[in-house]
Amino acid sequence: QKEVEQNSGPLSVPEGAIASLNCTYSDRGSQSFFWYRQYSGKSPELIMFIYSNGDKEDGRFTAQLNKASQYVSLLIRDSQPSDSATYLCAVNFSGGYNKLIFGAGTRLAVHP
Amino acid sequence: DGGITQSPKYLFRKEGQNVTLSCEQNLNHDAMYWYRQDPGQGLRLIYYSQIVNDFQKGDIAEGYSVSREKKESFPLTVTSAQKNPTAFYLCASKVGRDDYTFGSGTRLTVV
User: Fold this and answer.
1) How confident is the model at residue A50 (pLDDT cuts 50, 70, 90)?
2) Which terminus of chain A is less hemmed in, N or C, by CB atoms within 10 Å?
3) How far are the Cα atoms of A22, A111, B37 from residue B91, in angstroms, in the given order?
4) DSSP string spanning A29-98?
């Protein structure tokens, strides 16, 4: 079983629409959850992190966490062509040594 | 400015050759990580280190080795035992609970 799972996409949305990206994880003890954006050939950039159940908003981005369902999502409102990238979900797995585990990423394409 | 420096940006390796990727940070972070990324894939953890002189295998450590002799440095050696080393390699460091910083990466190609 993969530890962090995402749909690979591509997810195609029109400009101005809401893009919804989903992620599930296997470790019930995980406490920290991250969304990164990665442009081709570049290193990941942190968009948001979330620790508590519920929603966390930052500008056009909203992260949602449901620990009971082991599910975390990212909503991007008013999507722009510049949002076209791969979005990586990452989970800080619990245990003696914390380690950040990534999903395979969802490719988002925002078309004008 | 504080950050992580990875070098070289591009590296070419011949079959059977060992190569070392450099990762240096001036952030005074204790924890450091190496990830590998293949095209269309997420990042997979190779090795990580929480403190000097200590490191742990990640999910895909076979064919790789590391050292952590100084807090600032965490070099990764890709050995000849790694049969498919062509990939994008990312180094990261962490301070506190979850403050991760990534380097700009090294793209390794076998020729």
Assistant:
1) very high
2) N
3) 26, 32, 11
4) T--EEEEEEE-TTS--EEEEEE-SSEEEEETTEEEEEETTTTEEEEEESS--GGG-EEEEEEEEE-SSS-
Cα–Cα distance for residue pair A14/A40, rounded to 1 Å:
21
Partner-chain contact A101 B45, CB within 8 Å = yes
pLDDT, tens only, B25-71: 999 999 999 999 998 888 999 999 999 999 999 999 999 999 999 99
Q: How far apart (Å, rounded) are the C-alpha atoms in residues B22 and B66? A: 10
Instruction: Count CB neighbours of A71 within 10 A.
Output: 14
Among B29, B39, B31, B32, residue whose Cα is nearest residue B76: B32
Which residues of chain B does A103 touch, with a Cβ-Cβ cutoff of 8 Å? 42
Number of inter-chain CB pairs under 8 A, A vs B: 52
Closest chain A residue to B10 measured between Cα atoms?
A41
Tens of pLDDT, residue by residue over A52-99, are: 999 999 999 999 999 999 999 999 999 999 999 999 999 988 766 678
Identify the pLDDT of residue B1: 65
DSSP-H helix ranges across chain B: none
